[in-house]
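Minutes, methods subgroup
Present: GH (chair), OT, SY

1. OT presented the first of two proteins processed in the latest run. Sequence and structure tokens recorded below as shown on screen.
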Amino acid sequence: MTENSFRLRLSTRAIAETEEAIHLIEQKERLEAAIQAQDSALSIDLSKAFLESIFKTIISDRLETPDLRKEFFPLFRDVKDNLVFSSNDDIADKLSRLAGSIVSVTNELRNRYGAASHGNDGYHRSEFTMGDVEFIASSVDGLAAFLYQKHRETLEPENHHRIQYDDYSNFNDWIDGQHNAFSMQLSDQIVIEYTASRMLFNNDLEVYREMLLQYTSTESDEEDDDD
């Protein structure tokens, strides 16, 4: 993209540390590209699709058996049911209402004006200006970033069902400090080293998770003792 092209800056920052979420990153880049191409109808479609990908990512991380076949609004309700917007009830309520408004309006706009929602005659011209589209996309950007950041900030092993290896570096270091790494020499120049934590994660995720829960529980107990 050129220096002056439209970017979902808040979402870019929010998902920067989750490089393995390839589809989520691709959805964001597709929306940016549609806006850059000044395709207003496709931009509206992709705004909703990007939010839907955010919803599905969050509930897949947090629910043991998520139902990803649900429609747009039920997916958003699952997000709200499993994500605390604020420890202050009044703030949480108002943030929830604001988020719900963005979700509702984005869905309405997509259904009426999106490229894939219905066909138009061959001489149809979109009534959306690109300024309108950028306003919508900026709202979606803010909501997507808010939800994803809040999700990542509040993930704990107890509610994290789709664990990523890089999410728990302290625990990985602790395992590696207890067990030797395994090395495989393929040639004089090539030696592959497997750490104990990586081998456990790749080969028995359930045991990895159980040890992680025990580790975090012990850490919490020690912090309580220090207090």
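2. SY then presented the second protein from the same run.
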Amino acid sequence: MDRRKVPKTNRYFLKKLETMSLDEVKKLQFEKTKETLERAYYQSKFYREMFDRARVTPDKFKKLEDISRFPFIDKQDLVRDQEENPPFGTRLCVPPGKIRRINITSGTSGMGQEVHCHDEKAIWAANASTASHFAAIGLKKGDISAVLYPLATMTGGMLSYEGLRIFGATPLPLAVFNTNQRIDMMRRFKVHHILTTPAYLTRITTICLERGLDLKKEFPRLKGITLSTEPFSVSWALKMEEMWETTIHDIYGSTQLNLNYAITCKYGAVPDGEFGSYHLADHFALVEVLDKETNKPVKYGEWGEPVITTFSREAMPLIRFRSNDRVRLLPPKTCGCGRVGATWEVGTISRYDDMIKIKATNVWPQTVDEAVFSFDEIEEYSGRVFITNSGQEVALLNIEFKKIPLDQDKKSAILSRLADKIKEMTHVSMKLEEVPHGTLPRFEYKARRWTDERVEGLERVKYVEK
């Protein structure tokens, strides 16, 4: 998105909070974090026992940096607590009668699903953080937004739906329909906005083109497309902006935060042809970005793990929760949208547990995504890492081409170029094989394109003594 073409008007849902100075933010964060520590210690068995083991109490929190004195928690701690004390664990800080919503994580890490309970205040903050994004990108009351996320116990769909509603826009929940039905519904209501994932936006774009639909003519009122849950490349986002003739946006949230904590503003995800930056809802949570190995704060421009302390969740707060996400911290800046503060890089957030070590090399799936989808002719892929019977470690990509005229020579040339590009970007050689169109799974929410079969493969290796 060319910044020069963006409207000059700045819009907010929570203007006073969204435009605070850095000093005001730090003061608020200190006060709210102290309240959270005290509430958790005196009202939650889980936190009281954890703090006592670490020999730390809320009175030790005298400045914001003192948060480092308190212990970390992670997904395993939460799951263990709720398994030992079903169904909610011992983290509740309010009577059960004050619970107004239950969310459950999607469980994509394979470690079990966490249960998170919310009171009315937490629900309002969650919805308000999301409404702030819709205001920032220029939606107006009455605008229709196609919500393609599932409305279930996971947080994403519910926050989107309710955030639109309290903002004053009209959510159109379409997850119950198949892809063609969703497209027809979006055409019927001439939607102003779409909420989806990068993988599924690719899917509906492909289906529209296969049906001979002109995206610009079919969706003349479209003001933006908001993505979440997955990384993407600049080139892909620019291509989507051109094809849909709208601005690509991105939001970052999680069930643990119960917020859409990081949002793009009117300038979108790729202003001026490069990744932009998120604005952070530091008025609703304290999020440290720490080096995964040293647990020390990272410097601007470095990668780190968001460690979450909530203060909008009274019923079930989180204190120093290790998210296992991977973000790039950027310096505070004053944006043309009027928001000030620390920022993260848009489009590159991933999970540390998504990283795969192949042939002793760290490979991030998003890097392979970028290589594969730089070829317009490719629609989808899946990756496998396995051990052959002879003990060879192999990374295999199954490639599915779009339903467009392509002879075998052209396909072979694309696969050869793609193999070279993957080797250049990951420093790992991978085998590529074409599979028939329609073979691979499509993703409507979180894409999981890789499987690691090496443990099973090691059991099959045939050792021959010489």
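Chair's summary of item 2: The first strand starts at residue 101 and ends at 104.
Next meeting: continue with the remaining queue.
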